[in-house]
Amino acid sequence: MTIDISSQTRRVVYTGSAGTGPYSYAFNILVNTDIAVYYNTIELTLTTDYTVAIGAAGTGTVTLVVNPGGNIPSTPSSSDRVTLIGDRTIQRTTDFTTGGPLFATTLNDELDSLTIFTQQNLEQSNRSLRAPNTDPSTVNMELPLNTTRANKYLTFDVSGNPAATNSVGTYRGNWAAGTAYVLQDIVKDTSTSNIFIAITAHTSSGSQPLTTNTDAAKWSLVVDAASAGSSASAAAASATAAASSATAAASSASSATSSASTATTKASAAATSATGAASSATSATSSASTATTKASEASTSATSAASSATSATSSASSATSSASSATSSASTATTKASEASTSASTATTKASAASTSATAAATSATAAATSATASASSATASAASAAAAAATKDSIDEFYLGAQSSNPTVDNNGDAVTAGDWYFNTSANETRIYNGSAWQVTAVSTAGLLTAANNLSDLANAGTARSNLGLGTAATTAATAYVGKTAATGSASIPVGTTVQRDGSPAAGMFRYNSTTDEFEGYADGAWGSIGGGASAGGAIYENSNAVAANYTLTSGTNGMSVGPITIASGVTVTVPSGANWVVL
Fold it and tell me: How many domains is the chain partitioned into structurally?
């Protein structure tokens, strides 16, 4: 398949808004396997997942195939990505033998393949990390060995070559307004004691704290000392509250003990009063019995008096005395009964007071238990907050060792330093980090960097910057301006095209292969002319075309020669200037 290979990037990316397609590609391919198709990040399979249509010019379209359960489970939407990439297998399928046939179609296919291979490689190399064309030839962009660069930062040394280092940043001390900070500079916010690292070069402005500064987005928080301080304050407050709760619990317990003691005392008094009441009741019963006895004796005496007149006076006197005694005993019994009732009432009152005191004591005891529980909870929260604050501080102390005048051998906990520990050296005014065996400066040296201070003084104007660097004002040359080659000892890949595709404004010295006339041609003296004739048979035979398919004018002051017969196409003119000759043999 002979086609013209146009200058196109061999990659095109679409969103899935077109559904299954078709999705067009403008770069040239020879067969349908010369293109790779991706659905999001999945490389699809020809026929199963997509089909390819190729036009006469080698361009065409790709149509996706929806396959539930396959690589394209549903019709693509605008959130999906469809990518078409030139992917012709790099190989040579034709071998020209000495003295064998050399057909233009076969040669064109090989040249087309070479051009496609070159475009594919260029598309991939343009997407890689590489040094600019203006870098000196001494620059070596090869990465260090994998064992050297493992767990390291990718940096560039004083010569601009890739290097693997443990660099973190440069400690610049306390933040200040009006200071020029560069990437990875480290500062302290004195309003919060937080540590920040610059993620964008800038000149500082405004005021602290940096979290609300106009340049807040240009800094990244490294150490949150403010939060650690807040946690410590909260822990102290919790500890104070716990102590207060413990004191209140102790007071409640003391009150409960006093109330219980009072209740015991009142219960004892009530028991004593009840005993007294019982004794009084017993005395009243005994006095009543004595009164009854005395009344019986009085009745007997009266009977004796009536019977014996002689002894009447004596008996009457005795009766009077006995009656008087009985009355006195009855009065005593009444008094004792009243005292017993009063004592019983007093006992009841004191027993009620004792019950009330006991209830109060139980309530106080419950309150004391509740206070004790609250005290325990506060103490637990205080301990947790204190532990969290201590853990945060310990975590910071384990890797940031603060400002010291010389390289430390132990961290803030007294343990041996480990890889990743860092501190600020006040003697050298620089930040250092421990790499596992030695301390090293964490910042990249600026001795070999291009800055405004060493000639890169105008970054806004490319021409001025190039002049400052002694590079002149010429623009860099694009890769397409150079003639490619197949290999160091191979062949040059010169432009190929039809007569119609010649440069619109040619200049003397231009050289190309004309696919219309199947011959090499060059531009000189205002006209295109063939170059060479394809000598064969050891240089003894030179061949020329037997037909003129386009207008041609011999160069003035020259002669032309051809081997006939020659057929001049209809409408085509061969012009021989005055003084020139065209000889057809």
Answer: 4
